[in-house]
Design brief:
alpha+beta; four-stranded antiparallel β-sheet
Length: 98
Amino acid sequence: FATSPPLRHVFGRTNIIIQLSPPPSNCPTSLSPSVPRYIAIYRFGSVVFFNVTTKEASRILEQIKKHAVDPIAVGFERREHFEMALQPQLETATGKIT
């Protein structure tokens, strides 16, 4: 997927999870080379990227689509972007779940 091969992959019943190698040192990114990067590809059509730049995700998605059956046309994909900040030192929840 990237310029170097994946580090490892795990097959599930409905998905495959791929751990990507670190980004190349000449690649301008805000991600540290020590941050693990993953792709989860689901049988029902979803692809989830963890710690992958938008540009790299688009390039990888195009490669995945080459192996798909009846892929969605470019520009018609439904994309969502979520970010999560973790604070392990936090002792109590700061919000209510109702």
